[in-house]
Amino acid sequence: MSATRPVPTDGLRYGRRLVESLGQAELLRDLEWDERLGWRITVAITIDSGNEELVPAKTNWSIYLDEQHPYGTIDFYPAVEGGLAGTFAHQNYNGLVIGDRLSGNICIKAPQFVFRRDAYDADPIGHKNRLAWYIEKAVEWLTAASQGKLLDEGDYFELPVFYSPKMTDHTIATNENADSFALWQSATQNYGSAELVAVGPNSAPTFAVRRFFDAKSNAIMECDWGVEICHSKRTIQPAIWTLADFLPVLEPYQVPTTWKEMRRVFLAHGDNIDTRLRDCFRLIRDGYQRFLLVGIPVSKRIGEAPSMIHWQPLALPPVSFGINFAKGFRPNDEGYWRRDRRELVGNGETINWQTGKSWGKDDLTIRGRLENKLSDKRIAIIGAGAVGSVLSELMCRAGAHKLTIVDYDDLEQGNLCRHLLDISDLGQNKAVAMATRLNKGHPHSACTAIDARFPKQTQQQNLKLQEADLVIDCTGDDQVTRDLASFAWTDEKQIVSLSLGYAAKRLYFYANPSGKFDPKDFASKVTPFLEQDASEHDGQLLHQGIGCWHSAFPARIDDVWMLTSAGIKLLEAWCTGLSEGNFAVLEQVIDEGGFSGIIRRGAA
């Protein structure tokens, strides 16, 4: 935002004039400059209200426009005088007075606005009539609000904004799904304790719920996390939980901000929050600040039955303990609760809501995940070099969390130009370091390592390798392909070879679903291309440095990433049955204009 008052652009002037021509809008105050939010106009919007007590027919709005309007943001805030009272769905908390406006910016954008691409968005970004489009959307929003239709049946469920004036920015992550929902449905108690473990940097405090206990400290749920969270020895602290059977909101859609409001919500549902708090507080009388997790049953879409639990955290001050009890009472349960009720959760005390996040597997991979027929497999990756490291990273982040990585080699400085490991891993076994990296990269990653040369692993390592459903060879080593065929597998395995040709001009994909790798068939198909690789380079070999006789394999990191990424497409198609061919070559195409793409070729 500009430090000095800019001159209104032609687009701003046109937008301001446009308001005066709209039948349901009236310009109350002309363009004004706000140092923080930009240009503002004040507009009265009139609708045919379905409930004037809830939404008046005429409401006043502070509309903020980017200084480069019709580009940039447009925000609608209720005015203090004549504005919309209360907090509705698809609106920020509206209870704060900020100058002559309220805090409840309404959401009238299309869902695609988060993509930040004009072509994807219904918002007419850049069009001179853009403000008129927004005002029309505001009219639709207000009309729906007056009719109680902002949350329409079939829409995706949206939690209200859990605003707190004491927001201290802690995040509590939980791992809930349909299976755990069934467990909670059958629970005999509605409160207990939980174990939290710290994750992430100390500057942004985040905790994951590792397990839930009943009121007698019996474990009732072990949360299904990956290695990093399950085995973490970082800060561990107790919390308390209580499970409601309703969404705690005040009409129309505001979360309680004080304990008085919380009591009103629970009483409206025939429940007593004080009974719950008193029971819970008995479990944390230790003199420390703790979190309370409020369990809320939610559905995926409006109108559907609840299908999972959302845990909404709030921070509590230290509850009464030791010599801190109510005057006139003894230091017992009654004395402690009397003080808690008056001083800590009294009617005038604000609720310190925190941020609750769902870190379920589906939630964390919704932006892009592999097909289940691939991601659900137990996968062994033999070779943690350039191809193996990239393959394991991409597959793990896309949902394949049960990887076993096999490699005997240690990371050297020459590997850094195209390996995912870094300087801090030099001298470490590649498989071990990669498994550690992957487990730190995703809350559900449960990757293991075998620091041995296949097939010379120990008996214990062999048992681990035998657990795999799918084995992927990324070594580019012909001896490994022969070992894959002769190895004593205990059951049928899907076995795949992914390897790069010289200078990473080609990637070779070979799959054998029969449970026994066929090295002769593999060789017959790949050899003609390897011979072509050999004929295409000038015979000059790369050497690591002075004093090193052995040559280095040339392959640039972008070529490794590109071909390996494309190789995953082949692997996924084969695992899901979309492609029946067991051999393919991905080949870079270079023409006079340089790189022009990748083509797929079959056996010669």
Number of domains: 3
N/C terminus separation: 61 Å
CATH fold name of the largest domain = Rossmann fold
CATH class of the largest domain: Alpha Beta
* Rg for CA atoms: 31 Å
Oligomerization state of this entry?
single chain
**Class by SSE composition:** alpha/beta
- Going by CATH, the homologous superfamily of the largest domain would be NAD(P)-binding Rossmann-like Domain
Helical amount? 25-40%
Are there runs of 5+ residues with pLDDT below 50, and where? 112-118
Largest sheet: 9 strands, mixed
Number of helices: 15
- CATH architecture heading of the largest domain: 3-Layer(aba) Sandwich
Query: Per the principal axes of the C-alpha atoms, what is the gross shape?
Result: globular
**How confident overall, as mean pLDDT?**
92
| Beta strands, count | 25
Strand content: 15-25%
Protein name: Molybdopterin-synthase adenylyltransferase
Enzyme class: transferase
Organism: Stieleria varia
GO molecular function: molybdopterin-synthase adenylyltransferase activity; tRNA threonylcarbamoyladenosine dehydratase; ubiquitin-like modifier activating enzyme activity
